[in-house]
Structure prediction request, 102 residues.
Amino acid sequence: MILEEEHKNTKQQKIGDSDLRYLSPIKIETKVEKKYCFFQKRNIKYIDYKDPTFLIKFLNAQGKILPRRITGTLQKNQNKLNSAIKRCRQIGLLPFVTDDLR
Prediction:
């Protein structure tokens, strides 16, 4: 009889503990990498449009230009990069559209 009462008490304590455990949100630690401007970090002032191997880094697999929110480049450098990629496409060093660029 005494063992049964103790067993019931421990079950009630476990139920109470589990209810309290899930009242607060679960904390998941995520490490967010800070984005930085590739060109400012390496002190690049001129983006050469005749170097397609360098420009491919800023294109996705379909050949589209990656946006600033993904690459982390500054607006000024993103504009220079866009014009360099477009010039490179015009002279035929980079494709306009492709299935698998990388």
Remarks:
- The longest helix spans residues 2-21.
- The chain has a mean pLDDT of 83.
